[in-house]
Amino acid sequence: MNLPRKLLSKSLVSARQSIRNKSFVRIVEVGARDGLQNIPTNISTEVKVGLINRLSETGLKTIEVTSFVSPKWVPQMADNTRVFQEVNKKKLISYPVLVPNLKGLEAAIKVGAKEITVFLSASEGLSKKNINCTIDESLVTAKTVISKAKESNLKIRGYISCTVGCPYDGYIKPASVAKVAEALLSYGCYEISLADTIGVGTRSSVEKMLEEVLIIASPDKLAIHCHDTYGQALVNVFTALEKGLTVVDSSVAGLGGCPYAKGATGNVATEDLVYMLHGLGAETGVDLNKLVEAGRFISDYLERPPASRVNNALFSKMK
Which of 65, 154, 191, 312 could be stapled to 149 by a disulfide with Cβ–Cβ 3.0 to 4.6 Å? Predict the structure, then answer.
């Protein structure tokens, strides 16, 4: 069903005004990490580095490159050290890495990482399935990792997964998300990314979640991270923009998925996100044509079309 014209018009004006007030929307590209980690076939280090180097030429300011997790659990990230060291890093671009624990942090520090990300869940079910502990136990681990990271003057970003729905627990109460976000900010995270990990969020559920989190955190401390399983990712990003958020996670070519939710698709495609943001009058600093080329590079390697309508539409014109 279409939104009533007056409501749609009001929403557009609200989002556009929110964007204009800050003018710049920062995109956090997660394709090389979140997008590739669940692909079962081995992707060579050279291809991963080639993707990241191409993304570095697009104007993106933040590109997540890998995760320092056990190869037993995430085989695709076993070459994390090589990937991080071989990337042609550019000034003014941040290259964060994900770390799950102190061992991962130590490895990240050893290779010279300047920024890390830590992840928790707002769902008890996913927390126990994914990292084998309760939310409260995961907060203890996160606090220890963040404390050590601060001693090394690292920037720390936090992820909260399953902020609106979980494959095990179903609906997630917004208060649960706010509790985890408040704790991570108090520990020292400069920003919290709120993830609809399985892509079940709608405008209404995302709005309710954000309203609760915004009670304990200002919009400049938050980011939105939407998967597109039900085709609602851009709608949900738009909802976050209305609430004043100006940081959005996305994945080139729509790469990604969730191993714990059958049918869950990748993050909102960076190409589609940039096209929408530019259409709303936002500045991103991103060259869309170069982004399309980067998405095509990894899609060709994987021998599948990009899960991005913008990529498919523009690439046909670029030939």
Answer: 154
Range of the domain at 163: 22-251+263-318
Which of 278 and 259 is assigned the larger pLDDT? 278
Residue 63 sits in a domain whose CATH number is 3.20.20.70
CB 55 within 8 A of CB 298: no
Q: How many domains does the chain have?
A: 1
Whether pTM exceeds 0.85: yes
pLDDT tens for each residue of 234-270: 999 999 999 999 999 999 999 987 666 666 678 999 9
Residue 11 counted as domain residue: no
Whether 15 is covered by a domain: the verdict is no
State residue 1's pLDDT score: 39
Catalytic residue among 162, 189, 226, 258: 258
Measured CA distances, 265 to 133, 181, 247 (Å): 25, 25, 21
- Say how far apart CA 30 and CA 55 lie, in whole Å: 11
Active-site residue, 258 included:
yes
Is 207:241 a contact under the CB 8 Å cutoff?
A: no
